[in-house]
Design goal:
With about 55 residues, this protein is mainly alpha-helical. It has one domain. About 60% of the residues lie in helices and about 0% in strands. The chain contains two helices and no strands. The protein is extended, with a radius of gyration of 14 Å.
């Protein structure tokens, strides 16, 4: 049951984000939606630039 609730939250976040026009707005809305629903005031995104050698 918990998994279904998580999937529903992701679907709601995607729907909310896709209502906006630009990719930047969509990403910001997606992050804002999750931040609001998990009760945090900040979300950090890190990019891993390690090259495969």
């Amino acid at each position: 049951m918990q998994t279904i609730i998580r999937y529903e939250l992701v679907i709601k976040a995607l729907c909310s984000a896709l209502m906006l026009d630009t990719p930047d707005e969509q990403i910001n809305e997606f992050i804002r939606f999750f931040g609001k629903h998990i009760g945090c005031d900040r979300i950090y995104i890190f990019e891993d630039n390690k090259k495969n050698m």
